[in-house]
Amino acid sequence: MNLSRNEQRTLHVLALGGRILHERNDSSKITSVTCVTRDGLVLVDCDLFVFSRLRRKRLIESASGSPYGISRRGRASVRAQRDNQGA
Q: Does residue 54 contact residue 77 with C-beta atoms inside 8 Å?
């Protein structure tokens, strides 16, 4: 599956335990998203456009209004990257 660099970066953060927090307006449309790593840092590459593309491809999912996380399909399509935290 062809994914952009920002989509890959976002999926990698989610695979390492990150979450996408979303806010809705009165008509229950998602108006803003914030991708947070497991350490509490904010990923600026994840915007509403990247979020909607990942959601349309069913690479991220949410259950019962909880923050979005990576789906099984997303784990299968993310490319392996070296984790810089321990190196």
A: no
What does the block give as tokens for 84?
């810089």
> Which tokens in the block code for residue 63?
């259950």
Return the structure tokens found at 41.
């840092």
Q: What is the mean pLDDT of residues 5-30?
A: 92
CA–CA gap between residue 80 and residue 67 (Å, rounded): 24
Q: What is the pTM of this model?
A: 0.86
Q: Which helix (H) or strand (E) holds 22?
A: strand 19-24
Q: Is 87 a residue whose pLDDT tops 60?
A: no
